[in-house]
Structures are given as structure tokens and as C-alpha cells.
Write a structure and sequence with these properties.
Length: 114
């Protein structure tokens, strides 16, 4: 009985409805039309511009997500070079981590999950 209660409580305790993310622009140019979403595209956080050396911290709601998927970051670099990248994994609409950090460099993106 105790094991059953502990199992039920742990499942509901870890059922998170959002994930925190941070975008750090360590490139030499502004990022335009920045979007962070899940692969289900049910909720998208949008930012018109993130300037060099600027950090943004926000939350992505996953309340309506029900499937397995990944996290997507889209943005436009200088000269209208558009990037769309997918990272990480969530299961049954629930994030496995507490936060994501997108560290944008001139030629790459470094992603950390905590």
C-alpha cells in the first residue's frame, strides 16, 4: 500500500506544465524573429529581437502537450539566414528537465539542460 501511494504521488509531483528557458545571444549580431516551442507547436514564445550579449529568461507552457517530442528554437541571423533547431526530449507532454539554456554563438548553438 505504501509503495502504491509513493508511486502515485511521485507521478503527479513530476507532472510539470512548463519549462524554463534562457536564450543568451553570444553572437556578434542581433537575432530576429526568435521563437521557442515544442515540436507539437501548441504554444510558442516569440521575441522580435535579441541583441548581442542580451539574455532572456522565460517559460514555455506545456499544459496542452500530450505526446513525446522535442524543443524547437527558430530565429533569423544577419543576412536573413533562418535557423530552426530541435533539441532535447519530453515524454507524454511532460518535461524531463527543469530548464533549457540556449547559448547562441556566431556559428553554433550550445544547449544545456538542467
Amino acid at each position: 500500500m505504501i509503495v502504491l501511494c509513493a508511486t502515485i504521488n511521485s507521478c503527479t509531483f513530476f507532472n510539470k506544465e512548463e519549462i524554463q528557458f534562457e536564450i543568451i545571444n553570444n553572437s556578434d549580431f542581433a537575432l530576429k524573429n526568435v521563437k521557442v516551442s515544442t515540436s507539437e507547436k501548441l504554444t510558442t514564445q516569440k521575441f522580435d529581437s535579441i541583441e548581442p550579449k542580451e539574455n532572456i529568461v522565460d517559460f514555455l507552457s506545456m499544459k496542452n502537450n500530450t505526446q513525446d517530442g522535442s524543443y524547437t528554437i527558430e530565429f533569423t541571423r544577419i543576412n536573413n539566414n533562418k535557423e530552426e533547431n530541435k533539441y532535447g526530449y519530453y515524454t507524454n507532454g511532460t518535461p524531463l528537465e527543469d530548464s533549457i539554456k540556449f547559448n547562441i554563438q556566431n556559428d553554433t548553438i550550445i544547449v544545456e539542460f538542467n
